[in-house]
């Protein structure tokens, strides 16, 4: 695998939690819409099983919370999740300045 391809894969599918947290800070996202929303906004299509695992781990860690939205299970980012997003933004900005 070429270096750029590896970098892209590890920064998309390999860090799916960032994209879920980012989407869920803007709107409540329903289980069934996560893949489509990630594809529309970020340009890659993660697998359904991986999404379920990431949602489970984020919820268990307190980074998202489950709610009912239009009769369906939906998720939104918690304050703890927002803090993590800010940390990653700062890290990425610092990294970009260094490279």
How would you sum up this structure, described in words?
By secondary structure, the chain is α+β, with helices and mostly antiparallel strands. The chain contains five helices and three strands, in the order H-H-E-H-H-E-E-H. It has helices spanning 3-10, 16-26, 34-42, 48-61, 79-98, and strands at 29-30, 64-69, 72-77. It has a three-stranded antiparallel sheet. A hairpin with a 2-residue loop joins strand 2 and strand 3. The protein is globular and about 45 Å long. The protein starts with a helix and ends with a helix.
Number of strands: 3
**Widest sheet: strand order?**
1-3-2
- The name CATH uses for the topology is Arc Repressor Mutant, subunit A
**Shape designation:** globular
At the fourth level of CATH, the homologous superfamily is: Winged helix-like DNA-binding domain superfamily/Winged helix DNA-binding domain
Q: State Rg.
A: 14 Å
Proportion of strand residues: 5-15%
The end-to-end span amounts to 21 Å
Q: SS-based structural class?
A: alpha+beta
Strand/helix succession = HHEHHEEH
- Broad CATH class: Mainly Alpha
What CATH architecture do you see?
Answer: Orthogonal Bundle
How many strands, which pairing sense, and closed or not: the largest β-sheet? 3 strands, antiparallel
Low-pLDDT runs: none
Number of domains: 1
Summed up, the helix count is 5
Mean pLDDT: 91
Helix content: 55-70%
């Amino acid at each position: 695998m070429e270096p750029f391809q590896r970098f892209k894969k590890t920064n998309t599918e390999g860090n799916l939690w960032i994209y879920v947290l980012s989407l869920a800070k803007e709107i409540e996202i329903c289980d069934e819409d996560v893949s489509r929303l990630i594809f529309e906004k970020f340009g890659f299509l993660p697998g359904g099983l991986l999404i379920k695992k990431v949602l489970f781990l984020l919820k268990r860690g307190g980074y998202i919370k489950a709610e009912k939205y239009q009769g369906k299970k939906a998720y939104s980012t918690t304050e703890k999740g927002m803090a993590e997003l800010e940390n990653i933004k700062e890290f990425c900005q610092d990294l970009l300045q260094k490279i």
